[in-house]
């Protein structure tokens, strides 16, 4: 197990220690970023006269060959190498000889891995943003199709006021829109290039760090070499944002699980996103929604893990920081998979519209509108509130809804009620007259849908 750093040591590392220390088993995910960063570094070294143009071309040729062979499967990752950086450099030396040994001039594995992780996260943010945009397109389509799908809105998990499925889905549209904004903010803040910071104190070689940053699509170089190799804030921010995405998905899944239950029957989940029971033939289980809900804890765990790892680390680099990779890779893969499957589930899910509207009526969600009716007829609101409370109590005792009360029964409680009470408390009227921006009325919703479409076309 000859190492790139072996000159200082008089005997080989114990095998157990080597295995514990090695990271190639997981940081091989960074091969593309590692090779891309090395090519930019070689180009900068040549620009500065540290390498000749011929040496740069040989290094580039070797690195391109390694990349092609990895992606074709011709070159496999081998446990004899400690990490992805050693793997790439050793293979370059094998292919190009002494010129390959010059690639590492002016850099350390500390700034190299910092670069690789930033580039990897930047690429993954772009992928996750695309998945979130696809989910928003699905939600927007569902909103457009369900402007008049009436359902109960809830507070305290109790029926409160009538809304529409479009309005309910619109709440999640806002959440996932904010998630995209958070990812974009993280991407902007991380986009400074650490390469050239060395192990912690820069280098005596005349590097052009701004040029390297430009080649790799960064906004510029980092401004403190110690922070450059010790910074994992962007991973903490990313895992926080991913935890928030999962929280939003989990809340949505919880509602779909409830809506899919026999008691609610608001939605029918497509067979492709459900499973059955091994013993109960009648069962159709919302497994995808439950798994997304369950995997939320896994992503939360990654955030807590990296916060705990980083809290006691002095400047600058420490090996503890190697623990950032597995949990970040796993969290990213988990979130991407969950968004993809959730999108498929929601896009194929069918609303049971009659059940939804019936539930809204039976839950007295129009009680507030009955009170507003009295207020509009001169009754003080506090008195109106009490009158409608008596109406609800009467309906509960009779096991009927407000819509099913006779006018005589209304007038026995308050003579103010007239025939037009039935129109005032209809689901359609209760929703449609709420047209301030952000409310569930059709005119308000159409304006919001227009703004959402403009947002998705623009972003």
Automatic annotation (TrEMBL):
Top-rank taxon, per record: Bacteria
Please report the stretch or stretches of sequence annotated as the Argininosuccinate lyase C-terminal domain.
364-432
Q: Name one GO biological process term.
A: L-arginine biosynthetic process via ornithine
Catalysed reactions, semicolon-separated: 2-(N(omega)-L-arginino)succinate = fumarate + L-arginine
- InterPro entries linked: Arg_succ_lyase_C, Argininosuccinate_lyase, Fumarase/histidase_N, Fumarate_lyase_CS, Fumarate_lyase_fam, Fumarate_lyase_N, L-Aspartase-like
Q: Could you tell me where this protein is found in the cell?
A: Cytoplasm
Keywords annotated in UniProt:
Amino-acid biosynthesis, Arginine biosynthesis, Cytoplasm, Lyase
A molecular function (GO) held by this record is: argininosuccinate lyase activity
Every Fumarate lyase N-terminal domain range: 7-301
Q: Name one GO cellular component term.
A: cytosol
Q: What is its EC number?
A: 4.3.2.1
Extent of the signal sequence? none
Known pathway: Amino-acid biosynthesis; L-arginine biosynthesis; L-arginine from L-ornithine and carbamoyl phosphate: step 3/3
Task: Specify where it is mainly localized.
Answer: cytoplasm
Per its UniProt record, what CDD domains does this chain match?
Answer: Argininosuccinate_lyase (cd01359)
Q: Cross-referenced Pfam families, in alphabetical order? A: ASL_C2, Lyase_1
Against PANTHER family, the record matches this protein to: ARGININOSUCCINATE LYASE (PTHR43814:SF1)
Family according to the record: Belongs to the lyase 1 family. Argininosuccinate lyase subfamily.
Q: State what protein this is by name.
A: Argininosuccinate lyase
This chain's source organism reads: Candidatus Blautia merdavium
């Amino acid at each position: 197990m000859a190492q790139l750093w072996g000159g200082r040591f008089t005997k080989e590392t114990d095998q157990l220690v080597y295995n514990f220390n090695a990271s190639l088993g997981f940081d091989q995910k960074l091969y593309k970023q590692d090779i891309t960063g090395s090519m930019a570094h070689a180009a900068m070294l040549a620009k500065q006269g540290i390498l000749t143009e011929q040496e740069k071309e040989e290094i580039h040729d070797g690195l391109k060959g390694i990349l092609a062979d990895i992606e074709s499967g011709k070159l496999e990752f081998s446990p004899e190498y400690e990490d992805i950086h050693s793997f790439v450099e050793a293979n370059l030396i094998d292919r190009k000889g002494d010129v390959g040994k010059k690639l590492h001039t002016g850099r350390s594995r500390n700034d190299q891995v910092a670069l690789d992780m930033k580039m990897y996260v930047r690429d993954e943010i772009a992928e996750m943003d695309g998945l979130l945009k696809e989910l928003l397109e699905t939600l927007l389509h569902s909103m457009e199709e369900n402007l008049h799908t009436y359902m109960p809105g809830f507070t305290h998990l109790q029926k409160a006021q009538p809304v529409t499925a479009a309005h309910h889905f619109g709440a999640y549209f806002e959440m996932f829109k904010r998630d995209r904004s958070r990812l974009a903010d993280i991407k902007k803040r991380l986009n400074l290039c650490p390469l050239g910071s060395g192990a912690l104190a820069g280098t005596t070689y005349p590097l052009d760090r701004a040029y390297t940053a430009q080649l790799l699509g960064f906004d510029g170089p980092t401004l403190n070499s110690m922070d450059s190799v010790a910074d994992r804030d962007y991973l903490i921010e990313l895992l926080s944002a991913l935890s928030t995405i999962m929280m939003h998905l989990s809340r949505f899944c919880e509602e779909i699980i409830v809506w899919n239950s026999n008691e609610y029957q608001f939605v029918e989940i497509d067979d492709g996103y459900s499973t059955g029971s091994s013993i109960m033939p009648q069962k159709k289980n919302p497994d995808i929604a439950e798994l997304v809900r369950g995997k939320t804890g896994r992503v939360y765990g990654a955030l807590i893990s990296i916060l705990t790892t980083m809290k006691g680390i002095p400047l600058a680099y420490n090996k503890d920081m190697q623990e950032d990779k597995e949990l970040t890779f796993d969290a990213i893969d988990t979130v991407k998979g969950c968004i993809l499957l959730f999108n498929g589930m929601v896009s194929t899910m069918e609303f049971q519209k009659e059940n939804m509207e019936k539930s809204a009526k039976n839950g007295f969600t129009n009680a507030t509108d009955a009170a507003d009716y009295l207020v509009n007829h001169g009754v003080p609101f506090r008195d109106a509130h009490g009158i409608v409370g008596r109406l609800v109590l009467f309906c509960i005792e009779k096991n009927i809804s407000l819509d099913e009360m006779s006018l005589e029964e209304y007038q026995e409680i308050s003579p103010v009620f007239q025939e037009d009470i039935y129109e005032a408390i209809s689901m359609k009227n209760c929703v449609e007259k709420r047209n301030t921006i952000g409310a569930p009325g059709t005119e308000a919703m159409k304006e919001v849908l227009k703004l959402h479409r403009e947002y998705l076309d623009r972003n």
